[in-house]
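call fold(seq) -> tokens
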Amino acid sequence: MKRLKIKRAIFLAMLALVCSGLNGYAQQKAVSTITINGEFNEKVNGNLNLTFKRMGGVKMEFDSARVTDGKFNFSRTSEEPLVLVMALELKKNESGRGGSLNYNAFYLNPGEVNMNGSSDLQKTTVTGSGTEGNADYQRYSTAVNVFLTKLNDLNRAVPSSLPLEEKEKIWKKNTDSINLIRDEEVFLKTVKEKPHSLLAVLALNQYAADPVWTPRKKMQPEVIEKLLATLPAKYQAYPSLKSLKQELQVSKTTGVGQPIINFTLKDVNGKTVSLSDFKGKYVFLDFWASWCVPCRKENPNVKAQYQHYQDKGFTVLSVSMDKAADRKAWLEAIEKDGIGMWTHLVDEAGFAGLAAKSYYVMSIPTNFLISPDGKFLGRNLYGENLDKTLKELFAGK
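ret:
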């Protein structure tokens, strides 16, 4: 009898551990999943096109859900908040009407989300544990759209008679000037005034995106780090903020005056070449690929700069992200763009390769300007910015 009691006690203890584990698993699963249940007032049938925008970078994921008699449900695994853009496409009725497309965006986080209201998504309401921060996001989105409207108005005012190249320069200038104001008045203001709100995660990611990777603001990583430190500790574990910390560290590592990170790859002839081989020259290290449209568009500018400054100790070192299967396309792109006069290397491992990882290259084009003594002078210099930087660098030389 005593032995049976001992066995029963052991069994109950094990059961308790299993249940505890299962409960923990269930809680973990619930915490990392956004579950959406919805019902429209109208008994419509159609399709919901779903776009999930992650906080860091520009990564987007696409999905869809069916709407039957006005009801729908779907879920998404996520360890942090995300922006969900929903577009509703209704089936056409027998008269040929319908097929309308309308959309709305929501800021959701792991938890339950209930959507109700009109099939006009602008009038749909959301409630539940997974909607924390959404009300703030709607006001935030409205504020951002104000600047988008201003930008569109400015660009529409550009004379249509101007050459496309001139119009593009004006559009870029308009974009930079409007975005500078938007970033201060919406993104930065949100982080400073509401650091403990869930919306601060999105705002900081958006504010940090340009300062870290482009030269137009000359923002110091330390500034972003200070803002990041004001957010609650529980937010610091979010993937996007972990990634941002890493980006900031890389930005400091490749900051002006920091030593280069050496790597070795093969050129078009299979010859092994190292970045350190170019010590004594000003090197424009350019990560690109044959399939990258913005890269190919920038090649004429890089070529012009090379031809102008090559006699002053300036050279270009291009690193292609083309895979082995795309070797022919890579070589053809070099010939077609007329850029075979400088050294071309290829990392067939692409973004997973040592060179890209060492320089934290997650998108292309990405470039770095390096001094003759092997130290960083700048990064992500394109178009007029590259031209201006090199003019200042070689002035009087």
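DSSP finds eleven helices and 15 strands in the chain.
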